[in-house]
């Protein structure tokens, strides 16, 4: 499944300010859906390293019009809200959101876990060391794969007494409190997480590790590096990909899958 990214922010790292009006956002959603996106992930607050925290009300103001109209315009597409704040979660859930994607794993806002724990929606268990403000200040692990595996196990337990305990998606958080070596280790052995029994999502799109590998061959949208990391992960059984360039990723996966099955 392809999750298309819609950042309704002025300061996101790759497309800040491009889609932060209602008209531009809807045009972008329509384009991504037509290009093959199964899910649209809408966010109103940047989580790039060092980004500033904004108020709940300001974040909701950025996304509320698009959230309200989404299911009327795109009834067959899954809606995901990318937020750390319970006010935004509650509003989105009341407007038929299918997935809540909180990079803090429901720890930033003390009310957020109560907002989602009993709801019939998918919850993304996302790993991040630190916060967006601190996550890239010398992150360290005993063993990055096992540390994240242990983190997932603990977070899954929190849902064991809820009705919708199976509606979880695991995201190891590429680039969220990880150095290059950590990101590469996670991607290289990402199939380890299948043993936890839940779908695994990765977000490698346009991430800094692509630049760290490609050096002088870096490009603005990093489509080549993004697609390469996605195809490698797909070959290890990963099925959900959070991306900016839906058309190119859809095309690449279709060709790869066809060649693989011939």
Structure overview:
- This protein has nine helices and eight strands.
- It has 262 residues and is an alpha/beta fold.
- The protein has helices at residues 22-34, 56-73, 86-94, 112-116, 144-157, 180-188, 208-214, 223-235, 246-260; strands at 2-7, 39-43, 78-82, 99-102, 122-126, 168-171, 201-202, 240-243.
- It has a single domain, classed as Dihydropteroate synthase-like (TIM Barrel), CATH 3.20.20.
What is the gist of this entry?
By secondary structure, the protein is an alpha/beta fold. The protein has helices at residues 22-34, 56-73, 86-94, 112-116, 144-157, 180-188, 208-214, 223-235, 246-260, and strands at residues 2-7, 39-43, 78-82, 99-102, 122-126, 168-171, 201-202, 240-243.
């Amino acid at each position: 499944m392809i999750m298309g990214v819609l950042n309704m922010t002025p300061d996101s790292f790759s497309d800040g300010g491009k889609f932060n009006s209602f008209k531009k956002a809807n045009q972008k959603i329509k384009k991504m859906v037509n290009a093959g996106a199964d899910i649209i992930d809408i966010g109103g607050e940047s989580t790039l390293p060092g980004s500033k925290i904004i108020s709940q009300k300001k974040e909701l103001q950025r996304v509320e019009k698009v959230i309200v109209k989404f299911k009327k315009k795109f009834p067959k597409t899954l809606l995901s809200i990318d937020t750390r704040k319970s006010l935004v979660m509650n509003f989105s859930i009341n407007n038929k959101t299918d997935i809540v994607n909180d990079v803090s794993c429901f720890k930033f806002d003390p009310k957020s876990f109560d907002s989602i724990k009993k709801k019939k929606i998918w919850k993304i268990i996302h790993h991040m060391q630190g916060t967006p403000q601190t996550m890239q200040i010398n992150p360290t692990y005993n063993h990055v794969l096992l540390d994240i595996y242990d983190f997932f196990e603990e977070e899954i337990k929190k849902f064991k007494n809820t009705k919708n305990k199976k509606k979880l998606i695991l995201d190891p958080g590429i680039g969220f409190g990880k150095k290059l070596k950590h990101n590469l280790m996670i991607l290289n052995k990402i199939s380890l997480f299948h043993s936890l029994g839940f779908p695994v999502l990765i977000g490698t799109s346009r991430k800094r590790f692509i630049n760290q590998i490609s050096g002088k061959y870096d490009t603005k949208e990093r489509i080549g590096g993004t697609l390469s990391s996605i195809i490698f992960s797909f070959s290890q059984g990963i099925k959900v990909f959070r991306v900016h360039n839906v058309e190119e990723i859809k095309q690449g996966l279709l060709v790869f899958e066809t060649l693989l099955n011939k």
